[in-house]
Write a structure and sequence with these properties.
Largest sheet: none
Radius of gyration: 21 Å
Strand content: under 5%
Structural class: mainly alpha
Shape: rod-shaped
Distance between the termini: 29 Å
Number of domains: 1
Number of helices: 3
Length: 89
């Protein structure tokens, strides 16, 4: 059975915030790539790193969506449980 930990949702959103910030700076990093003309090894390394980070960001976003859905379900289940006690009184 799924066990919800409230802090896990907050913990998962931290890497996304940092990654989004990094990807925002990636556009500015275009100047770095232009300045590395003639150095395909550096460009290839930078492109590889960016691809890996984008892949990780996608994974973390999916994990966050799953956790959010589980949190919403747990809240709904809790509301039904509490309503059961309220109606039984």
């Amino acid at each position: 059975m799924f066990q919800f930990e409230p802090t896990s949702l907050e913990t998962r959103s931290e890497p996304i915030d940092g990654a989004d910030e990094f990807l925002g700076r990636a556009n500015k990093g275009t100047a770095v790539i232009v300045s590395t003309r003639g150095r395909p090894d550096i460009v290839q390394s930078l492109v590889k790193q960016l691809g890996e980070q984008e892949t990780r960001l996608d994974v973390v976003r999916k994990e966050l969506a799953t956790l959010e859905a589980a949190r919403q379900k747990a809240q709904a289940d809790l509301a039904v449980f509490i309503e059961g006690f309220s109606g039984a009184s």
